[in-house]
Structures are given as structure tokens and as C-alpha cells.
Amino acid sequence: MLHLGKINSLQALRATTPGMFLGDNEGGEVLLPKKYVPKHLKPDDSIDVFLYTDSEDRIVATTLTPKVLLHEFAVLEVRDVTQFGAFLDWGLDKDLFLPFSEQKIRVQEGDQVTICLRHDEVTDRLFASSRISQFTEGELSVEEGEGVDLLVDRRSELGYQVIINNRHIGLVFANKVFQPLHKGDKVRGFIDKIREDGKIDVSLQKQGYAQVVDSQDLLLQKLQENNGILYLTDKSDPELISQKLGMSKKVFKKCVGALYKLRKIEIKADCIVLLD
């Protein structure tokens, strides 16, 4: 079958003036416009393409990779707003439609909006929805301590709302953020806690001693990048430590103590120095 909104592995069938027709193993055909046809592509070759509908609602193929695939989430920029809805930049020639009915909050040109890519089976069209909570999964697929992929959705009163593995919504508390975060950032994180009500707390650092071990490597790397010296101590302001190293003061102090015991650094009154 031809799968709209997904990457399809298809076979080149025949070259025509408009482009190359591609087919699946069930007799389906779709056009890959000439401007996307690789020079080396010939009949019987296989090629990976993304399928969507053009301005005339015909299914077409492209070798471009969109910013979001079917059932996944992304933060996209609003290109235009019309009487029918908004149109979003998702990296393809034809912008992605965000109907008014699928807007949680009305958007304006230039806004960054978090959406899920959906398929309307009645009209056979792809569309965006910013009602993201409707499309996350209730049944948990993660466990505490697990490493996960995060998409930063928005800043909240408590911290940052994130989308976990394109499946769940979680929260990174502000007091656990030691690096700049912006809407649309994709970062690696760890499941900190799963609450009784199903809500998920997320951390950007590993928990326990594993976090300290990783942070030791980071501290050594920063020392090497700064000619073996960092003007930070256990008296330094936590904000300065967070800004320079992306870690909490508590973890920094543990790292310094561990590296000192290993005789990898020397602690001075106003700095730490890397030992040869």
C-alpha cells in the first residue's frame, strides 16, 4: 500500500515527461516529480520517498524529508493565516494545513506552534492539529530511569512541558534545568518519576551516581577546552555554574571532590586546575 504521511520504499516503474512513476507491490502508483528524480534512478530501482497530497489533492512523492511524519509531533512556524485556517512550514513545497477547528489557541503568522500530523481518512488528506493532548497515549510505554527523546513544547508555571518519544506528555521542573531550553528544542532526557495519576516527571540528567560520573567527564572536557583552568569553586554562584557547565552546584561539588581524590585536578582558592 501507499502510506500517506510516511516514508515509503517504492520501485521506479517508468520515466515520463512529468517525472518518474513509482509503485508498490500491490499495484499502487504515484508520481515523483521530475525535479526530485535522482539522476541515477532508473526503472526497477528502489527509492525511499515521502508521500503527501499536492494542491490538487493528488498523492505525490518527494525525496525531501518533512519536519514531521504521521502521528508524530513537531514545532512548526505559521506561514500564513486565511479564512480557512493556518498554513505551516513543514519543509515541503505545499504548506501543511492547520484548520481553525484543530487550533487549541488561534495562531498568527510567525507563531511557533506544536502540532501532531494527522490523516483525515474521509478526505484522504494530511492535516495538523495543535490539540496535542488528544493524540498522546494513555498507556505508559516508559519506566523510571529510562532514557528518552524529548521535544520541548512550552514553558509552564512549573517548568517545561515536553513530549516524550512522540507518545506522552511530561514535565521538566524549572529547578532541574541547567541549560537553555526553547520551544521546539529536541533533547535527550530521563524519566525521573511516574506519579500515581500517570503524570511523568522528566530530568535532563541521569539520576544518582550515574549523573555524577557523566558530569565528571564533562568537567574534564571543559577544563581541557579552557587551557586546563576554570574559575569556579564551591563558593561560586549556582547560576554561574549552571551557565558555564550545565549542571547543578550540588553535582559540581561532587565532581570536584571525586576528581580531586583521583588526582586529576588541583583545587585553588579561586579556581580548579587540570593536572597533567
Structure, explained:
This protein has 276 residues and is mostly beta strands. The chain has 4 domains: 7-62, Nucleic acid-binding proteins (OB fold (Dihydrolipoamide Acetyltransferase, E2P)), CATH 2.40.50.140; 73-133, OB fold (Dihydrolipoamide Acetyltransferase, E2P) (Beta Barrel); 147-203, Nucleic acid-binding proteins (OB fold (Dihydrolipoamide Acetyltransferase, E2P)); 209-274, Winged helix-like DNA-binding domain superfamily/Winged helix DNA-binding domain (Arc Repressor Mutant, subunit A). The chain is 14% helix and 38% strand. It has 3 helices and 18 strands. It has helices at residues 209-225, 238-245, 249-261, and strands at residues 7-15, 19-23, 29-33, 46-53, 59-62, 73-81, 85-89, 96-99, 112-120, 125-129, 147-155, 159-164, 168-173, 186-194, 200-203, 229-230, 265-267, 272-274. The strands form 4 sheets. Strands 3-2-1-4-5 form a 5-stranded antiparallel β-sheet, with no helix packed on it. Helix 1 crosses helix 3. The model has no long low-confidence stretch (mean pLDDT 92).
Describe the secondary-structure layout.
Blueprint: E1 7-15, E2 19-23, E3 29-33, E4 46-53, E5 59-62, E6 73-81, E7 85-89, E8 96-99, E9 112-120, E10 125-129, E11 147-155, E12 159-164, E13 168-173, E14 186-194, E15 200-203, H1 209-225, E16 229-230, H2 238-245, H3 249-261, E17 265-267, E18 272-274
Parallel strand pairs: 13-15
Antiparallel strand pairs: 1-2, 1-4, 2-3, 4-5, 6-7, 6-9, 7-8, 9-10, 11-12, 11-14, 12-13, 14-15, 16-18, 17-18
Helix pairs in contact: 1-3
The CATH superfamily label of the largest domain reads Winged helix-like DNA-binding domain superfamily/Winged helix DNA-binding domain
Q: Please give the alpha-carbon distance between the first and last residues.
A: 62 Å
Total number of distinct structural domains: 4
Annotated CATH architecture of the largest domain:
Orthogonal Bundle
**Percent of sequence in beta strands:** 35-45%
Q: How many helices?
A: 3
CA radius of gyration:
25 Å
- Helix coverage percent: 10-25%
Main beta sheet: 5 strands, antiparallel
**Would you list the SSEs in sequence order as H and E?**
EEEEEEEEEEEEEEEHEHHEE
Q: What is the residue-mean pLDDT, rounded to a whole number?
A: 92
Which strand order spans the largest sheet, edge to edge or round the barrel?
3-2-1-4-5
Protein structure class? mainly beta
Low-confidence segments? none
CATH class assignment of the largest domain: Mainly Alpha
